[in-house]
Write a structure and sequence with these properties.
mainly alpha, about 130 residues, 5 helices
Length: about 130
């Protein structure tokens, strides 16, 4: 498969999964705030964004298996950077919570932080190594 086809297929799967994740997440917040649902119902509904999130990892894994080594190297660097940022924030904030009574950081924020760090790193590495953002 050529790179354009692989990338098109990646976005065709990734974007709907992320829309379901975001819609499910926001829907849960709205339901929890506006309707008095039992915890078991909310827990069952929480499976929707969880499954969507897990599918984004599988979609990205499949994408990385189908691109060439050079592009895969950029992806690996970006994913490791995202993971490093999340680990640094989680660990650092954990220390702050433990020792200086900082407010708790809602753990679900680590996912978008990771994807933002991934995107910034992927753009930076691509620009540095190719001279363009394509």
């Amino acid at each position: 498969m050529d790179e354009k086809h692989v990338t098109r297929r990646y976005y065709a799967a990734f974007i709907p999964a992320m829309v379901i994740f975001l819609g499910g997440s926001l829907g849960l917040v709205w339901l929890d705030a506006s309707i008095d649902l039992p915890g078991t119902v909310l827990a069952a509904l929480a499976l929707v964004p969880i499954i969507a999130l897990l599918s984004t990892f599988w979609i990205h894994w499949r994408y990385m298996q189908e691109i060439d080594e050079y592009l895969r190297q950029i992806q690996v660097k970006a994913l490791l950077s995202g993971a490093a940022v999340v680990l640094a924030i989680a660990t650092g904030w954990g220390y702050l919570e433990s020792y200086v009574d900082a407010p708790a950081l809602p753990i679900f924020w680590l996912n978008p932080i990771s994807w933002v760090a991934y995107g910034v790193t992927a753009a930076f590495v691509t620009k540095r190594e190719t001279g363009s953002f394509e």
